[in-house]
Amino acid sequence: MSPRRSRPGLPRPADGSWWLEECLALPGFAGPEAPPLGRDTTADVVIMGGGYTGLWTAWFLTEREPGIDVVLLEQGICGGGPSGRNGGFCNGFWEEADLLIAELGPEGAQRTALAAEACVDEIGAWCVEHAVDAWFDPVGHLGVSTSAAQDGAWRETVEATQSLGSDWYVELTPVQIRDRCESPVFRAGVLTPGAAIVQPARLARGLRRVLLERGVRIHERTPVTRFRGGRRAVEVGTPFGTVRARAGVLGIGAYAAPLKPFRRTVLPRGTYIVLTEPIPDRLEALGWTGGEGVYDFRSALHYVRTTRDGRIAFGAASSRAGLGTGLGPRLRYDERSVRRLLHDFARWFPTLADVRFECAWGGPMDVTGLHLPFFGTLPGGGVHYGLGYTGGGVGPCRLGGQILSGLALGVEDEYTTLPLVGVRPKPFPLEPVRSVGAAIAQEAIVRKDEAEDEGRRPNRLIDLTARLPRRMGYHLGP
Q: Domain of 452?
């Protein structure tokens, strides 16, 4: 894609993301070629989507049935969507322990969380085994309070996690937090030592390389124009040919939102990142040399990490939400969201006021009303789906691949019987209420967060609007 120009004073729009720019300059991640589909073909399984969900599904299909014929279709390039532009925080589902218990019950919550936790170490081991240098680093994540309103926000989740027998969280004092990263806004928080950091595009493109080596037929720049499927056959149409297969898998994230089966269950919401120039000496001055990912407890949370060459990637959920925002180029670089990030970065790191920002990027993620992904099979029985990671899919998408590969092959096992399979997502209102309401509520959430960051009480209307989704039964907002 051709990057847009930004206004003076704003960092340039990255071409997809800086992660993609960095890894696509390296032959091991750029190639080999995966040309568009050029003719009608058949396969055992056809996968729609070349992000983590589709790529891990293809991997586990080849693990379950060596020699299986898999075709994967991607409208852009593999890793060109959310899988190649996220913050690279690799964790499981313990961060949602209280929600898991509420929706799946204690036993289902424990099974699901343990299965997702295992994915973190498994991703690291997979990278070593297949010589994929995805910068996987099991350094843990720091959850920090950055305002009085956030103090203790983690306690309900920590207690829920402990009730399930996990010690995923370690509570830290303000001094212990600042020993790891010095910021005047850091108050107290938690460490999750079992979590990791990755270069997300390298992971996606590394998966692509290994799959091609295994014989998976990947066709990039091949948009899906239609699909239909029954129990015996699936047909997927593209501008260049049709794929007929025994089973199909749909793993397209936020881009499923316009499709009729998901119009009320998947909501696109923007998320953006700004990236500094390399500043390794300044990171050392902050004491931030352990590489931990850092996040806060705002409803529209910040997520922050460093890179191997000493940059800071600073991201946050945007006020852009709903289909009315579109899913195209406009959502990839939202100047208002970028300006907010620059303002918030200065609050977190005032000693870095002179640092230059090299680029910025963003795009939609797939949000669900329960803040949890869901898996299932469309009517007809031939097409299986996994959607709704709500920004936390780097680790759990591997679990999604285990689930979807089993569903596609008709296998009943420890993965396909997890309670996330067949869970009924809470529907959003019909349009136009969905898009308009989502945009208004998300803007209110961001404004409430900003007021609390400044030590102010948000005005009554903003506060009521921000809390409305939660009062309507959605696990979204304060």
A: 433-471
